[in-house]
Please model this.
Amino acid sequence: MPIAKLHPSALVLGLLASCSGLSCRSQGEPATKAEASASAVAAVSAPPSAATVPGPAPAPTCPAGQLRIPGGEIWIGSEPSEHYADDESPRFRTEVAPFCLDETEVTTSAYRACTAKGACSKPSNKQYHCNDRYPDRGTHPINCVTWTQAQDYCAAQGQRLPTEAEWELAARGGAEYREYSWGNEPPDGRTCWKQAHSCAVKSYAPGAFGLYDMTGNVWEWVEDYYGPYPWPPQSGFSRVYRGGGWSRRFEKWMHTRLRNREAERFSGSHLGLRCASSLAARGGRHRPGMGASPPMKSLRPASI
Model:
């Protein structure tokens, strides 16, 4: 193949063009001051690599269907002068880490889906008001489940049952210390109670932190063994459940400090669950005994 010859004048023009705007020098010739200055400016003005400037860590988020509950130091329980039951006292101060909590009680449809996957066992349907007996109650809270079944359901979602302290903080609006989850007004027209059976979730306006049915509809299992305040026992014969239910007729059964308990194997049409998630690992979920209880203001509606 013939090789094209480059005319000498074209070679000269090419060399001149390559040196345009630059100082051409022979090999080993030191750079001029202007060239050194231009190189320094270029080095300083070059944007830093993205790998060398880490951005802020993303804030922890809650799983779908759960809401973030801010933690903090709060008082749990009641003073003897105003409690409805002796086990609400002594009132104690505790610290609760931020956590996530189901917006609603676990529905019958959600529990059925877990059963269909083989991750949950079927609830008892022996009682007339067990919601799993009725195809049209998918939006009602699941009930007639034992504590173990409640724990298994939450574990199948990668979650857990809330502690008793977490539950009370969420129900009372933290340091607002609400009598009921929506505030201090009486329950009529504000929750599912005095009913023949449970209600569909979200039948009433949400309460503290945007949570539904923390007061009323079905009672809710929590993680802790039942025992005297302030320390939750590490073992026991029964587990705590909280919140009041659809069949109650008296306000004393609905307030946010009331405790109830049953054996782990117990189930009933008044009793369901909601799940929680931890936002970040911390040493202990709550720390009781942070000082003596100060004089307590009445939590009756008329005084707040």
About this structure: Strands lie at 66-69, 72-76, 92-96, 99-102, 219-225, 239-242, 260-262, 271-272, 276-278. The mean pLDDT is 82.
